[in-house]
Amino acid sequence: MKYLASCALCALATTPAIAQEAFDLDTITVIANQTRTALERSGSTVEVLSDTEVRTAPTNRLGDRLAFEPGVSASATGPLGTASTVRIRGLGGSYVPVLIDGIDVTDPAGTGGGFDFGGMTNAGLGRIEVLKGSQSARFGQNAVGGVINIQSLRPTEDGVHGFAEAQAGSYDFRRGVLGLTARTDRTDLSFSVSRTETNGFSASAAGTEDDGFDATQASLYARHQVSDMVAVGLSGLYIDATLEFDEGAAAGDGPPPFNERTDRETAGLRAFAELETGAVSHDLAVSYFDTERQTSDNFGGRRFKGERRRVEYRGSYDPGGMWTLNFGGDYEEEEDITQTVDITGVQAELLFAPIDALDLAFSVRNDDHSEFASELSSRAALAWRMREDLILRASASDGFRAPALIELDPSFGDPAFEPETSTSYDLGLEKRLAGGGFLRGTLFYTEIDGQIFFDSNSTGCQSFADFGFPGCFETRDFEASGVELSAEVPINAYLTLNAAYTFTDADAGDTRASRVPRHDALIALATQITPDLDAQFTLQHVADSEPSEFAPAMNKVGDYTLFHVNATYAVTDSVDAFLRVENLFDEDYETAGGFNTAGRSAYAGLRASF
């Protein structure tokens, strides 16, 4: 809690830092509460990136773009395709579920069960929401840091439309994207497919060979309004990727082999039905997710396979007054090659608006895990519109994370591990400015009891007994607190200034949490140079990061400053040309000790709409 109480009165709420949908009363959040909520009425902190902002991102990797948002940071172990982690308020992939069109795409067979942003670009994607703070009362286990909700391509107008995009650039990067949409008064259809290839650069700072990446990604979304009461739909995702990486880059105990490779195949499918019966609405969905990785290196190969099957029901009773009752339940099975667990959850949520200026949300959820005792999670949030131009937000919540399957494996972990439990608070204020701008900020605090982590010196697991190699999962406590500030200021009709700053103090046990920057600042200028030419200039400064225990002594984890430029020129009404330069001043830095990052790199392309 440290300085939270003393600084509470100076809190300023937060939202996206780069050309966001600033305080638009029509902007809604689909994940803060169980039912769609106007952003101004959400007590939880949510960042919203429009489909346009995602498409025109000034960075190649999606995780790097998300790191522009206050409270969000990212680290990567090399070029596009290598492992990349997005952290929210100091908590990484194990604590941040990622949904794509309602499909949970976190890896059941991965270390900690998180999502790897390494090969994820903006190709074929639409709107993105980042929900911050513990959300177990909404999403169950693992949602301790927050939730990232990604939509694929969506139709925006009636009729049949599409686009084709071709892009090329540094490190022999080549990408093609095709998107098709169709909309009638009852049906929405969209499909996108992309192919990305790059020779990359050496992931290891000690290596010289290029580590390449190629991937094919496709997504499908369909929704049909069968009648005034019934709608049905389907969403799907498929990714086939091959990546090269350097596993031993940070070991510090001799040269790594420098020729590791992973073949990855991921598929997800979700079918849903919506039923409106007067004041009560019902949503039913079934989903399946499968991911398989085959790695190969000088020491042989390893196969990882994870599956997730899920059935969920959500209901909502809205009598049309000052309150709405949401409720539901779900059943989920997760498995890897050696283990299977199942989780049954039930939840309820009360949205209450006693006066027009005040919105309250109370959520509670119980999860019954096949390996552990049931866990109860709760959340309370408020949004108080103190004046027409001023909103106070506050939330308090608790949550839990069940051990990942690999953490229960006696080879590296302990079957006796218990779920981690957490508590989270935030408090913020939002001030509207003339012309549609804003000032926002949020104070936050999170603590976790019994956090499971990998200790490279531990000798308590079976792998040490069998092979004599140290390195096992152990437990400790975690605490993070900080402040997020952001602003958007329209200077005139052609210039908009955006700024963001995050201070994060994150401690893991007796040491600072690794790869979590203490200071993260960003300034961006969006400008309309001519009626056909617009540009964005982005300056990001990250400071005071701690390398992990695996980093070599000569690592470059620390302070760095990046400057990006991207511009779009309308060649015709239906054809745009774009140019993007990342790391213009060729900063030499690392976000994960011992692993290279991209130097100055340029990309150009064309996008044709039809």
Automatic annotation (TrEMBL):
The keyword Transport applies. Pfam families: Plug, TonB_dep_Rec_b-barrel. It is found in: Cell outer membrane. It comes from the Bacteria. Gene3D superfamilies: TonB-dependent receptor, beta-barrel domain, TonB-dependent receptor, plug domain. It is a multi-pass membrane protein. Residues 170-584 form the TonB-dependent receptor-like beta-barrel domain. Residues 1-19 form the signal peptide. Residues 41-147 form the TonB-dependent receptor plug domain. The keyword Acetylation does not apply. InterPro entries: Beta-barrel_TonB, Beta-barrel_TonB_sf, Plug_dom, Plug_dom_sf, TonB-dep_rcpt-like, TonB_rcpt_CS. A motif (TonB C-terminal box) lies at residues 593-610. Keywords: Cell outer membrane, Ion transport, Membrane, Receptor, Signal, TonB box, Transmembrane, Transmembrane beta strand, Transport. CDD domains: ligand_gated_channel. PANTHER family: COLICIN I RECEPTOR-RELATED (PTHR30069:SF53), TONB-DEPENDENT OUTER MEMBRANE RECEPTOR (PTHR30069). Belongs to the TonB-dependent receptor family. This is TonB-dependent receptor plug domain-containing protein. It comes from Roseovarius ramblicola.
